[in-house]
Amino acid sequence: MAEKEISEISRDARVLYNKANEAAQRENLDYAIALYNQVLEKEPGFFECRRALRELQLKKTGGGGGFFKKMLSGAGSSPLVAKGQIALRSNPANALAIGEQILNSDPNSSAGHRLIVQAAQALELPRTGTMSLEILVKNSPKDKSLAIEFATALSSSGGDTKQGERILADLLRQSPNDGELNQALKNLSARTTMDEGGYTALEGGKGSYRDILKDKKEAVSLEQEKRVVKTEDTTERLISEYEARLQTEPINLKLVRSLAELYTQKNQFDRALELFNRVKSSDMGGDPSLERSMANTVVRRFDFQLEQLDPAAPDYAEQSAKIQAEKLNFQLTECQQRVEKYPTDLVIRFEMGQLYFQAGKISEAILEFQKAQQNPHKRLAAMGYLAQCYAKRKMYDMAARQLQNAIKEKPVFDDEKKDLVYNLGCVLENMGKKEEAVEQFKLIYEMDIGYKDVAAKVDAFYAGQ
Predict the structure, then answer these.
(1) Are 155 and 164 in contact (CB under 8 A)?
(2) Is 180 in contact with 146 (CB distance < 8 Å)?
(3) What angle is formed at CA 362 by the lines to CA 358 and CA 366, rounded to 5 degrees?
(4) Cα 233 from chain centroid (whole Å)
(5) Is the Cβ–Cβ distance between 369 and 389 less than 8 Å?
C-alpha cells in the first residue's frame, strides 16, 4: 500500500473529505472527525486526511490533558490496544483504524501512536508512521531509542532531517560519550548531505560513500536517468555518454547496470542483457534486485514482440498465443529458480502461485497460496486466489468459506474488498444460492454501481421478481 494524494483517491472518498473540511471550518469537530475516519477507512494511505484528523483530535482535547485525564483515558483504551495488537498480526489496516479510535479519545496516547507506527510500517506508509513517532518523541523526549527511530524515519520518509539531527544533537550534548547516539547522528548527517546534493544511497545498501557521484555533470545525468518520464533525446544522450565513459571505466559496475537499464527502455534488449550479464558475473552478481531486473528485461522483450504483431495478419492469433506461452514458460522457470534460492520468501511464493494459476496448474497454485497467506501483506490476496482455485475445481463450499473469512478481515470497503465480495457472489451463484448471491452484489451496487457487471446482475434480479 502506498500513501496517496487527493488526486489519487476514489471519488466517494473525495466527496467525504470535502464534507469533513467544511465541517471543520464550521467548528463541528465531532462530525468532521467522524467523516475523516470514514475517509481513512476507504483510503488508509490518504496522508493529508490523516494529518487533518490529527489536528482536529488535538484541537478537540486542547492539545493534551491533565494527569488524571490521561490515566482514565489509558485505562479506557486498554481493550482497544489489545485488540489492535491482535489485528496487527493478520490485518494491519484494521490495526491502523483501531489506533485512530484510540486517538479520537486521547490524541497523545503513546499506546495508540505506537500501534499506528507498527501498522504503518506493515502497510508501508512512512509519513503516517513518522507523524506518530513525532508525538511519541514529544511524550518521551529523553528516550534515546525512540529519538533514533524518529530521526531515521524522517530521513526515510523525506521529512525534515534537520529536525532529526537537532533531536539527536540535544541528546548527545547530555550524553557526549554515547557511541550509539554519535553513530546515529553521523549516519543521519551523511544521509542529509547526500539528499541535499541530489544523491541517493546505493541500492541494497551494499555500497560505500566512495560510490557516491563526485562530478556535478554526472549527478545531473543520473537525475535525468531516474525520472519517470524520459524523452527519447535524453535517453539517447545518456546512452551515448555512458558508452563513452565505459571505455575509460570498464569496471564501473554501477555504470554498466545503469546503461543496461537505459537500453531496456530503448527496447534494445540483447545489449541490455549483455550488460546485465557482465554485472552478474562480477562480485555484485548475487544481488536479488539484479535478478529481477534481468527477468523484467526478458519479459519486456516478450511484450515488445507482442506489440510488433499485426492484428490484421491471418496468423496473428497463432503468433500471439505462441509468444504468450513462451513468456509464461519463462516466468514460471525464472520464478521457480527464485523460490528454490529463497524458499522462505513468501512474496516470491505468492508470485509463483499467480503464475501457476495463470498456467492452469491449480494444485501447484493452491500449495503456493497456502504458504503465501502467512505473509500479512499478501494474506488477503492469497486467500482470494485460493478461493478462485477452489472454484476452478468446483469446490464451491470451500471457495465461499475462504472468501467469507477474507471479507471478515477486510474492514475497509475498497477495490480489494469489492473483488472479494463480487467473487463470493459468483461462487454463491454457482452453488444455486441466487438470493444470497444477489445480496453480495447489492453490497457493491450500493457503493459503486459501475463495478464490473453488478448493475446488470442486480437489475436482472429485481426485473425477475
Answers:
(1) yes
(2) no
(3) 110
(4) 32
(5) yes
Instruction: Return all residues near 235 (Cβ < 8 A) that are at least 6 apart.
Output: 262, 265, 266
Q: Residue 439 burial (CB < 10 Å; 0-12/13-18/19+)?
A: middle
Q: Closest by alpha carbon to 298, among 333, 273, 329, 332?
A: 273
φ, ψ for residue 46, nearest 5 deg: -80, 95
- The identity of residue 407, as a single letter, is I
3-state secondary structure of 46: strand
How far, in Å, CA of 74 to CA of 113, rounded? 12
- Rg (Cα) of the chain, in Å, rounded? 26
Tens-place pLDDT, residues 139-158? 888 888 888 888 888 777 66
pTM value surpassing 0.70? no
- For the chain, the distance separating the N- and C-terminal CA atoms, rounded to the nearest angstrom, is 42
DSSP state of 202: P
| Dist. CA 379–CA 377, nearest whole Å | 6
Please give the Cα distance from 352 to 364 (Å, whole number): 9
At residue 4, φ and ψ (nearest 5 deg) are -120, 155
pLDDT digit string, tens, across residues 8-26? 888 888 889 989 888 888 8
Q: Which domains does the chain have, with CATH numbers?
A: 1-125 (1.25.40)
Q: Is residue 404 a contact partner of residue 376, using CB atoms and an 8 Å limit?
A: no
Burial class (CB in 10 A: 0-12, 13-18, 19+), 438: buried
